[in-house]
Design goal:
Distance between the termini of chain A: 73 Å
Oligomer: heterodimer
Helix content of chain B: 25-40%
Largest sheet of chain B: 7 strands, mixed
Number of helices of chain B: 5
Structural class of chain A: alpha+beta
Radius of gyration of chain A: 23 Å
Order of helices and strands of chain B: EHHEEEHEHHEEEE
Order of helices and strands of chain A: HEEEEEEHEHEEEEHHHEHEEEH
Strand order of the largest sheet of chain B: 1-2-4-6-7-8-9
Shape of chain A: globular
Largest sheet of chain A: 6 strands, mixed
Strand order of the largest sheet of chain A: 12-7-2-3-4-13
Radius of gyration of chain B: 20 Å
Chain lengths: 302, 227
């Protein structure tokens, strides 16, 4: 009986292995015909021109039917990618920051998009940080959700639990959390009951950017992933980058080393101009961050 | 450049077969016959779907002894043609342009392989022009990775190189019916003879966009290993 059982188990095991050998598809990267005892790896992307590419990401609050480049820019992240070192940085700016907008005097920075379009927003950012972005990418919240869904969602590290009665009643748990499109949008938009208000929201947007980067990096070698991502970005954003430039940027992002990502949010103090509540940004800090990161996309301290 | 179309064993075959094969009811001879016909049709379609471009390398694969004075020097013999296939076109691109991209990008990859691994005389330690088809900036980066992106390290101990496998699969990004960018996923396997005898595999991805009217490599992600 024992031998019969052993025999049956062996036959079953052989059958499972045989079926597995035929059924399980080959891996995404086929094994070579040689067994490699030593493998070394090199990667590099050169987008041409300077080593650091600067991209201003703008989340427009355009309502349905409204042109997203003629609305307020509510999420503002100036992202630098160093294609030589694999470093990257993000400088977040609170949307209510009171800044000089080229040709429009002083206004909240989020209105730069409405008054002067992406180019005006780039100018306002240059006035504040000293860095003129090479590219401006504007998206709106539903499009942002679609893009996150297109890449399969992201994972972020949330330092504190927070909720919002309108956008996320059940709230976001503390710790590593998985976000689909809607949740990534809500995580990046919510200011309600965040102790640091707009500053904490900007920091959350940077956590979202880290999550997006991690997802891109993890999937970059899946055939077609970057191409699909670029198609999604083209479908869901307004940008001055050509398809080829978007492809180059996407490949550069994929090669960013997560250990070399640094982020800061421009500080400021809450005040008012007339009846409007505004943030008076710490311009000296913003300029210092710009100077520090301009050459190598690395921030030593905030 | 010779350009022929031949069927290529393709890694997507298991998926395609699974999708195309019918599920005949047990014991049904009629269904079994139909299933065989469908499988045959599927195989024929597979051959068509996975047909690939074979581009011979530049310079020509025709043997040519470059260094007659060095008795040890032997021409890297590499009759194995490069098989270039398209994994997917993202966007719309007319068939003629797909073929052109396949041919042109295949040639760029071939030129790099020839310059960096397969061509020229061995033994040697100098690979001064190993990155034809790279942008200037990418070439500068690649020179820092010459240990992997060329045969420079093992070159002095190699007498000859013979290619065993040369495959390239392309993902093409197209807008406005024009190809804008390409990821070329590749596997190159070659045998070396000499005091450094063995098999080396180089695999990874090259990233290309069109610059000044030609496809150029602006980035790479390459792994190299030897047995």
């Amino acid at each position: 009986m024992g031998r019969t059982m052993r025999l049956a188990r062996t036959v079953a095991l052989v059958a499972v292995l045989a079926v597995t050998a035929f059924v399980v598809p080959t891996s995404a990267v086929q094994p070579t015909e040689v067994s490699l005892v030593k493998i070394r790896h090199a990667e590099g992307v050169a987008t041409g021109g300077e080593d650091v590419v600067w991209i201003l990401g703008v989340g427009s609050d355009a309502r349905p039917g409204q042109a997203m480049t003629r609305a307020r820019g509510d999420a503002l992240q100036l992202v630098g990618i160093n294609t030589r070192t694999g470093a990257a940085t993000a400088i977040g700016v609170p949307r209510d920051s009171w800044v000089a907008i080229p040709g429009h005097g002083r206004e909240k920075i989020n209105s730069a998009l409405y008054f002067a379009g992406p180019r005006g927003m780039a100018g306002a950012m240059r006035n504040l940080t000293g860095i003129e972005p090479d590219y401006v990418v504007v998206t709106r919240f539903p499009f942002f959700e679609d893009m996150i869904d297109d890449i399969g969602g992201i994972t972020v590290t949330n330092p504190r639990r927070f909720t919002d009665p309108n956008l996320k009643k059940e709230g976001f748990a503390r710790g590593r959390i998985r976000l689909g499109g809607y949740d990534a949008m809500a995580f990046s938009r919510i200011r309600y009951n965040l102790p640091g208000g707009d500053f904490d929201r900007s920091a959350n947007q940077q956590r979202t950017l880290r999550g997006i980067h991690a997802r891109i990096r993890a999937q970059a070698d899946v055939p077609g992933f970057i191409e699909r991502g670029v198609m999604s970005v083209m479908a869901h954003t307004d940008t001055n980058a050509s398809p080829a430039e978007l492809f180059e940027i996407a490949q550069a992002i994929a090669q960013v080393d997560p250990r070399k990502i640094t982020t800061c949010v421009v500080r400021g103090r809450i005040g008012s101009v007339g009846a409007a509540s505004v943030v008076f940004p710490d311009v000296a800090q913003a300029r210092r961050l710009g100077r520090e990161a301009r050459q190598d996309a690395a921030l030593r301290r905030c | 450049m010779a350009h022929t179309v031949t069927p290529v064993p393709h890694r997507v075959t298991p998926y395609r077969l699974e999708l195309l094969m019918p599920r005949p009811s047990p014991g049904s001879v009629r269904h079994a016959h139909r299933a065989r016909r469908v499988v045959g049709l599927a195989l024929a379609l597979l051959v068509l779907l996975t047909s690939a471009c074979q581009s011979t390398a530049e310079p020509s694969a025709a043997p040519e002894r470059l260094s007659r004075s060095d008795s040890r020097a032997s021409l890297a013999s590499h009759p194995e043609p490069t098989k270039v296939g398209i994994h997917r076109v993202h966007g719309r691109l007319p068939v003629a342009r797909r073929k052109a991209v396949r041919r042109q990008v295949g040639a760029v990859v071939d030129r790099w392989w020839e310059a960096a691994y397969l061509g020229g005389t061995y033994p040697r330690s100098s690979f001064p022009s190993a990155f034809p088809g790279f942008t200037d900036a990418a070439e500068e980066r690649a020179r820092a990775d010459k240990a992997l992106l060329t045969n420079q390290v093992a070159g002095p101990r190699i007498d000859s190189v013979t290619a065993r496998k040369r495959t390239v699969r392309l993902d093409i990004l197209a807008t406005g019916r024009q190809a804008r960018a390409v990821t070329a996923q590749f596997v190159l396997t070659f045998d070396t003879a000499g005091s450094r005898t063995g098999t080396t595999a180089v695999r990874g991805r090259l990233f290309l966009t069109r610059k000044r009217g030609a496809w150029r490599v602006f980035g790479y992600d390459v792994a190299k290993g030897a047995r």
